[in-house]
UniProtKB/TrEMBL annotation:
Classification via InterPro entries: DUF29 (IPR002636)
Species lineage: Bacteria, Pseudomonadati, Pseudomonadota, Alphaproteobacteria, Acetobacterales
Taxonomy, superkingdom: Bacteria
Source species: Craurococcus roseus
Gene3D superfamilies in the record: Uncharcterised protein PF01724
Protein name: DUF29 domain-containing protein
Amino acid sequence: MPDDLYHTDILGWSKAQAERLRRVATGELVNDVDWEHVIEEVEDVGNSQLSAVKSHLGLAMLHALKALAWPEHRDAEHWQQEIAVFLANAQDGFQPGMQQHVDPAEIYARALKRLRKLPPIGDVPPRALPEAVALTAAELRSEDFGALDLLDRIRSALPPA
């Protein structure tokens, strides 16, 4: 097997490494396991899954912020539908062990920052939005927590008018 297979055919490399690891698991001495890259890939799997969950949560929050900042905009209903999709995608991948690595306050702050960097949406300035929202990773992980819950939580953090 060529030494550069990892860089030229990751699928072929992964299948070959999996077969070698199966042989190791049966007690066979195998000398050509690419341990450095196997370890790196195993580590990357968890990081990738965590990153996907955080990304979906961030997009859900960004769409919630857009829907609340411009509630009369023609796309507001679409943004609310997107919140539900992004939350469901996050919840599908959200494993219990990830909770300690998900900081809802940080994700919200990034979504708010991204919203403020967007070009103007229509001719109407955005409504005021809270700087922070009380959310927990456990709530966001729960399939019982949906788009309306996220919108209500952000609304409840708004200062009284």
